[in-house]
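Chapter review: from sequence to fold.
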Amino acid sequence: MAELFAAVAAERTGIASEPPVDIDERTAIFAAGVAGATGTFVAVAGDQIVGLIRVKPSHHGFGDLAMLVDRDWRGRGVGTALVRAAIDWSRGQGLHKLCLEVFAHNEAAIALYRNCGFADEGRRPAQYRRASGELWDSIVMGLLL
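The token string follows.
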């Protein structure tokens, strides 16, 4: 999971983290999440993790969603399957809503989330400062369960 995270971060376009990624630290973060109260799901092809999604439930009944998919597996249904698993798990946990934030330029991810029922809730102009110095907008999306 940590290696996939580092690979997606190295692309510098889809997630907030950028290189360098400390693999040991990220492994510990994922291990704590799996052992804790998060819903963590992975997509596996052979012996390779090609996608992952995490739902972090709040004490207020909603869950924050974070997902990443290996570049070679995008557009092949992995993201949709992961989001649907997260939605099912969240309903089973009694959550009333899922929330996420996505870069405004990530049209494929936005389309995937909309196809799964998420709605735009707002835009955050210049929310993320990138290592390049650029400021990127994000879109906040939500799904009532």
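Two observations follow directly from the output. Residues 69 and 114 are 17 Å apart (CA to CA). The chain is about 30% helix and 35% strand.
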